[in-house]
Amino acid sequence: INIQISNIKSNIDGIYHGIAKKYINGYIQEHAWRFNHRYKGYKLMFSMMRIVSYSIVMTRKMLKDYYNNASVSDGL
């Protein structure tokens, strides 16, 4: 688990250059998804296309409203 925490911290510092506290759960969920799908290789694109095709369109306003109404303890 310490390796995963270290990887998350490195990603946040290296890719995103820091994040706001209210977005932490979202970044952790993204990291968990990437970790769980790391061996899919070429199938990853098809998996993502399937997931996106069943998803609703989220506007920036919808995302902001969601994060503003959710708290860190909600687990997003």
UniProtKB/TrEMBL annotation:
Domain ISXO2-like transposase, residue spans: 5-36
Superkingdom of source: Bacteria
InterPro entries in UniProt: Tnp_ISXO2-like
Protein name according to UniProt: Transposase
